[in-house]
Structure formats: structure tokens, C-alpha cells
Amino acid sequence: MNTVTREELRKKIDRGDEFVLLEVLSEGSYRCGHLPGAVRYEGRGQVETLAPSRSTEIVAYCSNFN
Predict the structure, then answer these.
(1) pLDDT tens digit sequence for 32-57
(2) What residues does 39 pair with on adjacent strands?
(3) What pLDDT is attached to residue 46?
(4) pTM of the model
(5) Is 1 inside a domain boundary?
(6) Residue 11 and residue 32: Cα distance in Å, rounded?
(7) Structural domain tally of the chain?
(8) pLDDT, position 63
(9) CB count in 10 Å sphere of residue 21
């Protein structure tokens, strides 16, 4: 597991890199706002349906709206 800085994540988004972006917090926080393309993490089984292959990069983040 590696840490991605805000700046690195911004560059990935701006370049259109392919990765899965998971927000790891409550549904309320997700509804208040989330990064473009982010999917709210609902459980481990969900990851298998979101990532097309085991080599797909997954970036998980948490926000602080609440």
C-alpha cells in the first residue's frame, strides 16, 4: 500500500489516469460532496465488481464533511 498526496491525486485525475477512486466514509458525507468519479465504499465485495482486474489501481480516501 502506498500513500498518494493530494497533489499526486489531482495530477492523476487531470491526466485521466485509470483507477478506482473510493470514498471511505458515511453515506451522508458522500451526499454532501465527493471527488469527481468517486464511489462510496460499501464493503469489500464491492471492490471486485469495480476493479476490472487485480492490477487495477485503487485509491481510497476519506473526507471530513461531518
Answers:
(1) 888 888 999 888 888 788 887 888 89
(2) 22
(3) 84
(4) 0.76
(5) no
(6) 23
(7) 1
(8) 66
(9) 19
Identify whether 15 is part of a domain. Answer: yes
Query: Which strands make up the sheet holding 20-23, listed edge to edge?
Result: 39-40, 20-23, 58-61
Strands (E), the chain: 20-23, 39-40, 58-61
Q: Which domain covers residue 12, as residue numbers?
A: 6-61
Instruction: Indicate left, alpha or beta for 11 from its phi (over 0: left) and psi (-120 to 50: alpha).
Output: alpha
Task: Give 20-34 pLDDT, tens digit per residue.
Answer: 999 888 888 888 888
Q: Which of 63, 60, 51, 47 minimizes the C-alpha distance to 18?
A: 51
Identify whether 66 is part of a domain. no
Minimal CA–CA distance to 62: which of 6, 7, 1, 2?
Answer: 6
